[in-house]
Design brief:
The structure holds two protein chains of two kinds.
Chain A lengths: L2 E4 L4 E4 L4 E8 L5 E7 L6 E7 L4 E4 L2 E6 L4 E6 L8 E8 L7 E2 L3 E6 L1
Chain B lengths: L3 E4 L2 E4 L5 E7 L6 E7 L6 E7 L5 E2 L8 E7 L2 E6 L8 E7 L10 E2 L3 E5 L1
Classes of the chains: A mainly beta, B mainly beta.
Chain lengths: 112, 117
């Protein structure tokens, strides 16, 4: 069955450093990979989408890479800030369906 | 940007009663909406796909007679938890992709916290 793995342990980093989160998947060939941010008690908020034929995508301090050979995506936040503290979810989808399959999320804590 | 609302934001009900949760796309039309459930410290689990004008499609293991979904219009989907039990207590979230294709992001509602006593 399809499986998406994100580091279940919280990532604790110092303000100003780069946070790197990992998303690995098996038994799936997604057309799109998306990253969302979720704050406690709130719905997810879209951050970035990357297509299977793209290697890298950037948006302001965010960068996503997508390696379909390794079946892995890396999500980077540069110059991290305490306001970046949240849970980050990766989600996969196919080419013909809106249906998203979510990973379990990684909680990021940025210390001032 | 596109906004999805949910109502209520939280609800407490007694065991055995039914609860209705609304999901609305405020500034765009959505022929498809999704309903998720999220337990504490866990990820979003897709429950069902709500289709405007047709029956919902439920994921494996989700009881369609317990979780009734009605997609009444292009901007409204409702989830009714029937005969709720304490184990149904969870965070229910809907999402609505704009009708532009799966290569675009989805918009999520703020969620509804259901507590069954």
């Amino acid at each position: 069955s399809q499986k998406i793995e994100q580091n279940s342990e919280a990532l604790n980093i110092q303000e100003g450093k780069t946070a790197t989160l990992t998303c690995n998947y098996t038994n799936y060939s997604p057309a799109y990979l998306q990253w969302y941010r979720q704050d406690p008690g709130r719905g997810p908020v879209f951050l970035l989408l990357i297509r299977e034929n793209e290697k890298e995508k950037r948006k302001e301090r965010l960068k996503v890479t997508f390696d379909t050979t390794l079946k892995q995506s890396l999500f980077h936040i540069t110059a991290s800030q305490p306001a970046d503290s949240a849970t980050y979810l990766c989600a996969l989808s196919g080419d013909s369906s809106y249906k998203l399959i979510f990973g379990s999320g990684t909680r990021l804590l940025v210390r001032p | 940007g596109a906004v999805v609302s949910q109502h209520p934001s939280w609800v407490i009900c007694k065991s055995g009663t039914s609860v209705k949760i609304e999901c609305r796309s405020l500034d765009f039309q959505a022929t498809t909406m999704f309903w998720y459930r999220q337990f504490p410290k866990q990820s979003l689990m897709l429950m069902a796909t709500s289709n405007e004008g047709s029956k919902a499609t439920y994921e494996q293991g989700v009881e369609k007679d317990k979780f009734l979904i009605n997609h009444a219009s292009l901007t409204l989907s409702t989830l009714t938890v029937t005969s709720a039990h304490p184990e149904d207590s969870s965070f229910y979230i809907c999402s609505a992709p704009p009708d532009r294709g799966p290569s675009y992001e989805q918009y999520f509602g703020p969620g509804t916290r259901l507590t069954v006593t």
